[in-house]
């Protein structure tokens, strides 16, 4: 899973049916120190009620998609947790 | 899913059968601000009627492929939505 | 799927059985403009009779592997189409 | 699998149920020489009792997720081994 | 699949059971010209008796894992062939 910051949301009226009713959030990959990490911003489906500015963990691929009941096609990035704190050694 | 801009289409007469009848679009990964993002241009199968210049969201891997009925081999990038707007915090 | 140029082939006598009889091509990821794209050269199994110098589209992962009947283990990149032309807006 | 150093842990009270009870570790991809490698830090589920500062190997995707019994959705990076030594030629 | 050079092996006494008895090799992604390619060194399970210094092809993900009988969790990179020669156009 990767660390990311929620930086907004995407309004996507024309989409495949399995994305209907899903919150499509804009996320920016970050490092544990909070800096922007290598890699473009992504669109991830929210599964935990994440809001703007929150630090989250995002899962990818089949592991992410399978959180949602069928139909779940077209989902390959899901926000699966909201980070409270990071304990760095 | 990643954000991308549709920059054209690919004419691919010689292809595996499961790609027959599919619209093969050229997409360029972009950031939420609209700049070209890290990562090469890709070929994605259109699932929502996306046209040139439109901002779209692209799903990858099995999650993408499974949008299409079998035979759907060889499909690992699918345009699953056309972005109307991005609300950035 | 990504765009690539076929730049050669790989002779791999010692390999897992499911790769026997498969044409292992050397491909270089390229942009729509034909320049070398970010990302290393890859080895992809040919499924459409692609030859040296041709511009192709390559699928990855399970979506690629499933084009071949079992046994198809160890196959995660497949040339699934030969590009005739790219229409860029 | 990639090499990584455990650099801490993530406290994620609000998460999808399948992550409950899982140790969420912060890992930094490294080279065989121990330098930080290309690629952002990640969050990986521990499967072998890895602690801070240890060098580990991390598996990704479905291969990683399937180590855990269902429900295992949302898991796409797992620490699957603690490195004792690396024999470099 | 990607090209790599075997640069050593990893001694990983504490690991998940499905990795027991598997040869864990250190591989460095290379270009067809033999230079180090973009991307960190990886740990790959050997399936063809590859030794130090040899040029190999590595498969990733489910396609790689499925070469091994169950239990095969935690395996997402497998050496599936030893390159004899590369014919570059």
DSSP strand count of chain A: 7
Largest interface: A-B, 35 and 33 residues
Q: Helix/strand-derived class of chain A?
A: mainly beta
- Helix content bin of chain A: under 10%
Which strands sit side by side, in order, in the main sheet of chain A?
1-3-4-6-5
What does this structure look like?
- The first copy, chain A, is 6% helix and 44% strand.
- Chain A is mainly β and 89 residues long.
- Chain A has a domain of 54 residues.
- A five-stranded mixed barrel of chain A has the order 1-3-4-6-5.
- The radius of gyration of chain A is 13 Å and the shape is globular.
- In chain A, 58% of the residues are buried.
- Chains A and B meet through strand 1, strand 2, strand 3, strand 4 and helix 1 of A and strand 5, helix 1, strand 6 and strand 7 of B.
- Chains A, B, C, D, E: InterPro entries: EutN_CcmL, EutN_CcmL_sf.
- Chains A, B, C, D, E: This is EutN/CcmL family microcompartment protein.
- Chains A, B, C, D, E: Pfam families: EutN_CcmL (PF03319).
Write a short abstract of this structure.
The structure is a homopentamer of 89-residue chains. With 89 residues, chain A is mainly beta. The first copy, chain A, has one helix at 61-65, and strands at 2-11, 14-15, 24-29, 42-46, 55-60, 77-82, 85-88.
Q: Topology, please?
A:
The structure is a homopentamer of 89-residue chains.
Chain A: E1 2-11, E2 14-15, E3 24-29, E4 42-46, E5 55-60, H1 61-65, E6 77-82, E7 85-88
Parallel strand pairs in A: 4-6
Antiparallel strand pairs in A: 1-3, 1-5, 3-4, 5-6
